[in-house]
Amino acid sequence: MSTVEMEVFSNGQLIVMTVLMFVGGEVFTSMVGLHLKRSKIIRTWKSEAIVESVESDPRSPPPFDPSDQIELNIVTIPEPGLARFESQHNIFSSYDPFLKYDSIKFLGFLVLGYLVVIHILGVTSVLIYLALVSSAKDVLRNKGIKTFTFAVFTIVSTFASCGFVPTNENMMVFGKNSGLLWILIPQVLFGNTLFPSCLRFLIWVVGKKIKKEESNYLLNHTTEAGYLHLLPSLHSVFLAATVFGFILLGFIIFCSLEWNSAALSGLNTYQKVVGILFQCVNARHTGETIVDLSTIAPAILVFFVVMMYLPPYTSFLPIKRDEQSQLESEGKKKQRETFAENLIFSQLSYLVIFIVLICITERKSLKEDPINFSVLNIIVEVISAYGNVGFTTGYSCERQLRPDPNCVNKWYGFSGKWSDEGKVILIIVMFFGRLKKFNMNGGRAWKLL
C-alpha cells in the first residue's frame, strides 16, 4: 500500500526497506519473543531462588545461578527410559524443571532455521529463474533494477506479507512468468497462513532424529509453551484445510467471473490458471497482484474484502459438547467485566467508524469523482490496510466524470490520491490491524437480539 511509485527508490533505499520488512515480519518478531521468553524464565528462577535463600537464612550467600547450570551441562537429566515414559504420559515438569526452558530454546532456533532456509531457497530460486528466463530478466534490465536486489526484496516482502515489489506495476508486469509466480506462492503461505501447520510438522520431523524430549514437550504442551504460532495437532490440520478451502473457493469465483475478461487478456490457459491461483493466495495477507483490481467484478472485490478481514489463523474447528459446556461455564465466571472493558467495541465496529471518518474527509472527492472514489473502493482500501494486505484499486484519470487535463496516471495505491487527513486515518488503521490480536474479544457487552 504505497503512495509513491516504487521505481523512484534507489538500490540503497530498497535495501533499507528490505531490512525493515525482514525485522518487522511476524515470524522474525515472534522468534525474538521466544528468546526474550527464555531470559524471562531465567530471571524468574533467580528471583525464586533468592527469595527461598533469604527466607531460609538471610545471612546465606547468593544461590548458584540456574542458567550457569544449563550452560555448563551439569543439570541432572532423567534417564532415557524415564524420559520416554514422561513423554508418553505428558509428564515433564515434575521430573525435569528445565525442560520448558530447553524446549523454548530449541523452538527459537528451529524458527530461526525455518526463517533462514525459506529465504535462502526463495532467493536462490528467483535468481535461477531470472538467469534462465530472459523475458523476466529483460523487465528488470529495462527498469534499471538489479537482479539480486529484486530477488531478495521480493522474497522478503512476500514472506513478511508486505506485498511490495520493486516494479511500479507490482507483479502485473510478470503476469506471463508463471514460474516466478509458482516460486512466490509457497513464500506467501509459509510466511503467514500456513506457518503454524508447517512449524508443527517441522517439530515432528526434527523430533524423530534429535531433541526428542523437547519436541514431545512442544507437540503435547502447546499452551504451556506460550507461543501463539504453535497450535495443537487438530487445530493445525483444520487450519491447513481452511486455508486451502478459501483458496479453492476464491479460485472458482474468479474463474467463473473473469476467465474471458480484459483483466486476463493476453494470457493462455496455463498462465490464467497460475495467475488466478496466485491472486487468490495473495488475497489473504500479502497483496501482490497480477491484475488491475479496479477492472474485476465487484463480487470478487467483496470476496477479497472478506478474506482480508479474516485473521491469518482463521479456521473451521468443530468442538465437542463437553468442550462447549466448559466454554459456557468459563464465560459465566467472567461475566463481571470492568466498565472500561464493556466500552470496547468489536473489530468490525471500529472498521465501520474508520470508513465513516474517511468518507467524511474525502466527501469532496466522493461528489466530484464518484467512480474512482466509490464507497466500495474506500472499503477495499480500509480493509486492506486493516489486514496488512496491500490490495488497492488504484486511481485512473480515465474514470473521471469531468476529465482533468492536468491529471497524470501514477502507479501507486488509491490512498495516494486521498487528503492528508484520510492518509493519517489509514495509517492508524494499519497499526490497529497489526495489533488486532490484543483486542479480539471486544464488543462482548453488545447483544444483538
TrEMBL record:
Q: Which family does it belong to?
A: Belongs to the TrkH potassium transport family. HKT (TC 2.A.38.3) subfamily.
Cellular compartments annotated: Membrane
Q: Name one GO biological process term.
A: metal ion transport
Primary localization class, coarse = membrane
Question: What is the membrane topology noted in the UniProt record heading this document?
Answer: Multi-pass membrane protein
Please report the name of this protein according to its UniProt entry.
Cation transporter HKT6
What keywords would UniProt list here?
Ion transport, Membrane, Transmembrane, Transmembrane helix, Transport
PANTHER family from the xrefs?
A: CATION TRANSPORTER HKT1_4-RELATED, POTASSIUM TRANSPORT PROTEIN DDB_G0292412-RELATED
Organism whose genome encodes this protein: Sesamum alatum
Cellular component terms per the entry's GO annotation: plasma membrane
Among the GO molecular function terms of this UniProt record, one is:
monoatomic cation transmembrane transporter activity
**Superkingdom of origin:** Eukaryota
Check the record and name the InterPro entries matching this protein: Cat_transpt, TrkH_K-transport
